[in-house]
Each structure stands twice: as C-alpha cells, then as structure tokens.
Amino acid sequence: MNFWKIAFFTLLGGVAAVIVGLLWFLGNVGESSPIPEVHTINSAGNKLTVKATKEDLEGIANGYISKAVNSDTMPVTMQVGDDVVLHSEATVFSFKLPVTMHFDPIVREDGNLILKQSSMEIGNLNIQPATILKFLKDSVKLPNWVMVRPKEEEIFINLSEIPISGKIRLKAKTFNLAQDEIELEVIIPN
Fold this sequence. Notes:
Elements: H1 3-27, E1 46-52, H2 54-68, E2 76-80, E3 84-92, E4 95-107, E5 113-122, H3 129-139, E6 146-149, E7 154-157, E8 169-176, E9 181-188
C-alpha cells in the first residue's frame, strides 16, 4: 500500500475516535449526588418572616452568585420573572454561545429549594438539558450549598447551609412567582 493511503486512513481513524469520544463525553451525564434527606431545621429560637419581591430576590441571588463564581470561566446571572432564569455563555471552539436555562422553583418540606429545569436554549443548537447542566456543574465551582443534578435536570439549593452571620438559618416558606409572593423564614437561635 501507498504510504499516503496509510497516513490518510490513520488520520481519518484518529478524527473519528475524537468525534466518538466527544459525543460520549457530552452524552454521558453520569450519576447525580443524592439530595440530603428531608430534615427539619432546629427552629428553636426567634423567627422572622421576610417577604421579598422578585427584584429583591434577584438582587440578593446575583450578589451571592457573583461572590461564589467571581473568577470562574463561566459567568452566571439570575433573572426572576414568571420563572427563574439563569443566563450564561459557553465558549466552544473560541465561539461564545449564549446559554439560557429556565427553572420552576419548588419548595421542599424542609424549606430548601429545588429548581426544576423547564426549558433551555444554547445559541441555535439543540443540546440535551442534562448535558448543559453537566457542563455547568463541571465548569463552575459552585458553593457547597448549591447542588447541580444533571440527570434529574434540577438544581438543589440548600438554604439552611447558606453562610449567614453566626448560626442564623434560612428557610423558604412560599415561592409563588406568578403572584410575586416570596416568603423566607429567618431563624435566629437563642
């Protein structure tokens, strides 16, 4: 056989292996970390119920997000409207693609939040939402109180673990974005 034919087929096989590997990496979501069991926060102490608007929540959340991902490669901002929207951008082969993820908030019995993904857009590409969440989980160092669960297409926010002054704990009571009713309970231990 001709040397150039061997080189061509070797190169073709290498390119095919890279494409297959890339598709496997993008399609393999893997196992998600389990959500902590529902447990009630020690509510002994003084309780303060705080009512917030969408704008208030958006400002507070973006402040915490900017502190948590200040130097990471994938900037994330949150917008609160009729649902929770995370905006970001992904760099793929030196192209910046806008990423928009829509979530519906669910309040758990223990006062923590689950953001269940309802839709997702990444430029004009058609990519599985679980793949984008896996990319978010792998690309951004999120605080320990935020757990991205790609396989379940959700983000778990452990409000009781958000570092607030002293031993103050936070708990969600109501999270109705359609009515602009957001109630959080602040528990200050005695």
